[in-house]
Amino acid sequence: MATKYSPLSFTVFSSLLLILLATTSSTAQAIKAAHGFSSIKEATVHDIQLTFKQNQLSSRKLVELYLKQISRLNPVLKGVLEVNPDALYQADKADHERNSKAPGSLSPLHGIPILLKDNIATKDKLNSTAGSYALLGSVVPRDAGVVTKLRKAGVIILGKATLSEWSSYRSNGAPSGWSARGGQGKSPYTMGDPCGSSSGPAISVAANMAAVSLGTETDGSILCPSSNNLVVGIKPTVGLTSRAGVIPISPRQDTVGPICRTVADAVYVLDAIVGIDHYDNATIEISQYIPKGGYAQFLKADGLQAKRVGIVRDPFYNFGNDTIATRTVEQHLKTLRKQGTILVDNLKLANLVEIYRSSDEGTALAAEFKIYMNAYLKELVASPVRSLADLIAFNKKNSKLEMLEEYGQDQFVEAEATNGIGNAEKAALANLAKLTREGFVKLMTKNKLDALVTPGSSVSHILAIGGFPGVIVPAGYDSDGVPFGLSFGGLKGSEPKLIEIAYGFEQATKIRKPPKFKI
């Protein structure tokens, strides 16, 4: 849900440990021979597919390499919650299909391992628990809609990634990246706050424990961990990707999107998961925004040319005494100009203070969470809990297991006290719509903007309450060495322009670097 963060800097770290991630396996040597790099470190989907094509690598060997990385790194980083016991079987199947089918007939993601945030249901041997013991052993009725599409694309489900428990919607006191089942996730850059709630997907791809990953966002949960872990995140327009089979907070704000190391990889994943799912009616209407030919066509190196990008300096560009972050961001703005971007500077978002002070999002989400959580739990084939009330009771009974004494469950209790969408909730929803209409929408349309650019992920609240998309790209480090990204947000369905801008910025800057540490 709403992540807990300051606009840019999240954790002061004591020391960065030095260099890792080299593998000496024969497969790694084969990749080196084909591409000039010595391991799976930073290998892109394109790199991997080329080695497949040249018979330098198999999906089985690739999965084995990622499993080795997980075995070595995950005890400290805690980005992976479970490994799929069928991952190698799926890899063998992918290898067989690659050898038996016509060249060019397979999707760009065929044979590629992916990690799924543990609120995305899979009808297999993996658990789907939102990081809580309360759902351990529960049985889902079917794969989540996005998982069905991924399997159709030939993706290997490598496992489940950790998250902030219940997507940061159990307790305001719980730290980002923590869950009872997964423990405390850590950013591989700082060994500190990874941000949440999609912490595990971001940690894992940042540390090269998976090729690509899938997260979810209600408010900040893709953009913030992507920022903190120097990776790319795409928060799609709400309804562009199916939420069916995803443990919910609110369908009004929930969205499923990729977290990867490059814009191109994230776009390949996005292409695979968008589209109509009759278990999620919102996808029917929103599918009108999907461009013919998909999103990969917008990976243009000159994507920054002639784009109108807005800048709201107060409060998004207030870095305090952080001169490093200030210089870095200003340099990036110069780069955008050099690449042909029209920057519309010093804009004002008229109702920005009201948006951030309003309690309406919290009012609406509490009632929505109870409604949709009860519906999700009721539909499970088997489960120890069947309602939010059951969850609260489970936590009380298993208080030590769920760390209830330390973190509590205040958000659960608040949500359980609601009674549907009453007058207060209706008023809150109406005001959120008004704030969006008179704020972000007016700003974008009046100034004819293609995107709003902001450092870090602090714009997430504005995008969240309106169901708008955002793409975040690695941008550098603050004075404490904490990574941060540059966010590009737009109106509904503006993914093509956001992808052009994000890819153009990435190619012009190439900030992304793997973490340097020893374990």
Automatic annotation (TrEMBL):
It comes from the Eukaryota. SUPFAM superfamilies: Amidase signature (AS) enzymes. The keyword Signal applies. InterPro entries: Amidase_dom, AS_sf. Residues 1-30 form the signal peptide. Keywords: Signal. The keyword Signal applies. Residues 62-456 form the Amidase domain. This is Amidase domain-containing protein.
